[in-house]
Queue: 3 jobs
Job 1
Amino acid sequence: MTYTISCYPKNHAYHETFFEVIRFIKKHNDHYRFLTIHWSRFEWMFARDCMKDETLDQIIIFRNEDNEISGILTFEDDPGTWFAIYDQNPELKALMVDYFDTHFEGDLIIPHDPFITTLLEQKGYEKMDWMDPISWFSIKDFELPKPGGYQIRSLEEDYRLEEIHHALWLGFNHGPEITYTKQELEDRKSMTSSPHFKKKYTFAAHHDTHYVAYAGIWFIEGSKTALIEPVATVPDHRRKGLAQACIYHAINEVKKDGAEAIFVGSNTKFYQDIGFKLYDASYRYTKKKNG
């Protein structure tokens, strides 16, 4: 098999190459592979406008003889650490490792793969004491929580950029002082209007006029897997079951539309307590330091 290598275009618009990458990753996700770099994680990076045009050519695409994507080296937010996603072909794996070692200085994240691990070790890489976990929702039947004093609504029912900003700014501990600049609200609009974002899969807990908890799920109808991202609760409203309520409502909606498995990129106690179990993990390899 002969492969051609190309760089991702220096254009973070939603063009055909973007959709090719999404379809390629989703193909693997539907076979429960490479779930730690779920297709939605790639789209979420573009939706948050974290992928800058000047660095996009450091996403590398490997195409087979039919001009179909067979492998990708991609980073998250900024180059320095890359994820490898690939078809199961030894020649392709060797080519990708050679390219990475020759062209990049940084770390490579891969799933458990003895073949690639051996190739990396031969080139002087070692496994770090770090893993990127993925957990799956293990509860088949569940009731939708109804926290007293709060209403749980989807963004399809109530969509306000100022309140999305309120919940995420405070929920991710950016500080008590919130500004609502035009650019900040445009950023929230971008986050919630990417090609596969669905308002009906994102829920917020309402208290008075504010969103005080927020949880979304990414899912494409006709596929098998869904991923939760992001989840946040305003500090004054934590430990009241609000995040769980938003997550359960979102899970209920994607299951109605055919999702077979719901995942989250975490294995914290919070997720364990609400029904998630560790499913898999990816591992980081770094070049050994001389001396």
Job 2
Amino acid sequence: SGPDFQSNITSFFNQDYENYLLWFVVADESDPAYSELCKLKNQLNQTSKAQDVQIFVAGKGQSCSQKIHNLLYCYERVSDDIDVLAFADSDACVRSDWLSHLVHPLRQPKNGVATGYRWFIPKKNNLASLALSALNAKVAQLLGNTHFNQAWGGSMAIRIDVFRRLGLDKIWTKALSDDLSLSRAVKKAGMKVAFVPACLVASHESTTWPKLFEFSRRQFLITRIYAPKTWWFGLLSSLYSVLGIWGAAGLAIYAATIQHKNLDLFASVPAVFFVNQLGRAILRQRTAEKLLQHE
């Protein structure tokens, strides 16, 4: 709960989309979010374009993660007239046209799932929070018109006929990750994961080094299990960036110590690497600012 939570939830009530169903789910009524959700429903229900707003209590998950248990609890209550399932996390603040943009790619049968991604905005400017934002931005840079796309559970949508055809309700009961297992099933069926830049969502976070290491370890491990090609691509591209600049800097220092005749050439290589990485960082930041200007 808190100001961020209220803003995030309000953004889902304010979708410029006719007759959508807005369902929230918690594990237990003792969850502080439950009472906050009930309050916000009473305040915003009348002015929202949502046809139906529900707050479900799913109970504790037994054979799978709590998040997947909650999602399946809602899925089991979906009626036959529903065409698309859209998923979002409560720590995301979305634009009013988020849902419209998210479901649009699903009009093409080749797209099995449409996805946005998160953009971490540090609440505090401590090094751990800044490192989290930088790591997340590096992953976001991999998304686009590429085979390496992976769905992100905090902002994704899938046609319900595809969900059922792939048997995702059964896959999820044994899965570690809702989004990566969904991505793998979609790609295995010969369909694409469509990235929607307009569905990049702001996530305001602050963290500490222990939390960052635990979060990173969990994300990298799950990705290596479900998407090994993406994991290797991310690892090699990161190594190229890091080792390129530091390796070139080391060679330049060595060239200076032995007074190599081509010292200027050696010195220019790490400078080129640095300018390239700086340019990419500036481009990422400007792109995020444009997409998140409603923030």
Job 3
Amino acid sequence: MKSRRRIIKPSFKISNIIDRLLIEVINYDEFLLLLEKASDTFFNNPELEFELLISNGLPLEFDDNNNVFLKTTKYSIDEQCFCIVDIETNGSSIKKGHQIIEIGAVKYKNGEIIDKFESLVYAKEIPSYIQEVTNIKPLMLEDAPILESVLKEFKLFLEDDVFIAHDIKFDYNYISDSFEKYDLGKLENRKLCSIDLAKRTIDSPRYGLGFLKEELEIKVDNHHRAYYDALATAYVFTESLKAIDKEKITNVEKLISFSKSSKTIASIKEKKLKEEEKNKEVQKEKQKEVK
């Protein structure tokens, strides 16, 4: 007798709704029904959940027919405001009591920096190795604002901009987890990794921020300080955009998708090299046949 295996169906989540928004608009009433169906909502009330998504930075908007859409599917790169962020921390794990000790960010739109955010954060301890890397000393943080206060200000600054960082997973997740720790929601902003985009637009042997600064002759000092690293990342982002075909990448979501594509410069060069080697082998075989 065959044993019956229980088939566990994947639960419907908010991310499934967002995936659909990448393809089409959703009528508001249907959107609320989908939120009722989702298993990972914070509120039982779908109207409150909708407002929470907006508060958490998801760029939702209505059209004239009461349909909900992602602004990033409509906005061109030049129309979109990007928030380029960097943080310094006193350790890698919030669960182990580590925290942000500095946040720096710049707002970038249509090739220009239009605003900035910069703040040290009070912390009791900074490990010596982090002091060496960042040059942030405990004395510098004694009169700095507490983390909760800085996070509230940063959330207001960020709005629903596209979040960019050089190694997006660390900065985005660390800030989002910090928001949750202080009951400030979590990040729902659309996001883009400047390393991933650089790998598809800038021909370089390495893609660390320090190396790219030298490679691209970016004159920004104070490496490993949050604001200055965010500023340097903005210049890297500018270089990446110069290589973008805006006739093909017509909106921000297409830019995000492109940054995740398999066609890195390294892979294209490797494919071209293999094709050249293959052509050489074919030519050799043809020459042998002639002889």
